[in-house]
Amino acid sequence: MAVTTLSLRPMTGDDAGAVLALEREIFPTPWTEGILRDELAAPRRTYLVAEEDGEIVGYGGVMIVAADAHITNLAVAPSRRGRGVATRLFLDLAEGALDGGAEHLTLEVRLSNLDARRLYSRFGFAPVGIRKDYYVDEDALIMWVTDAAGPEYRGRLAAIREGLR
Question: Is the pLDDT at 2 greater than 80, yes or no?
């Protein structure tokens, strides 16, 4: 079911409290306020928040290095999962990165996070390796989309966007 009251906007420093609360709720080793503020201030980074009725229910970020866009994080409040929030965030991050000159997309995901892995596969990401001990308590699966700037990948993104309507 598509989310109809969802809006996305750039994250600001004023969002730190709500974003950090989600970090603590979702992740075993959440980011600190300092890390979050450093990321917001860093060049070639984009962070978005998803709001529903004025409440931040998700967020995500991307870092562009040369031709590669690295999805730094994507999180949705457990009570809002399965409603298209992650898809909308991820779609806007991917399209923004490509519009900003990225040609490839990459990320790491917990091996055990099957829901996220399914989402990333839907976006064309393929596993390419394992990062041992990437997380404090678990290895990460490294996933990539190469040649994301081409018309085929843009078509995939357009189809995903159309499916949200």
Answer: no
Annotated active-site residue 120? The verdict is yes
Domains of the chain: 6-163 (3.40.630.30)
Catalytic residue among 23, 47, 59, 120: 120
Q: Global pTM?
A: 0.92
Handedness of CA 7, 8, 10, 14 (dihedral sign): positive
Closest residue by Cα to residue 55 from 33, 72, 76: 76
Burial of 29 (0-12, 13-18, 19+ CB in 10 A): exposed
25-44 pLDDT per residue, tens: 998 889 999 999 999 999 99
Q: Is 108 a catalytic residue?
A: yes
Selected catalytic residue, list 23, 108, 152, 162: 108
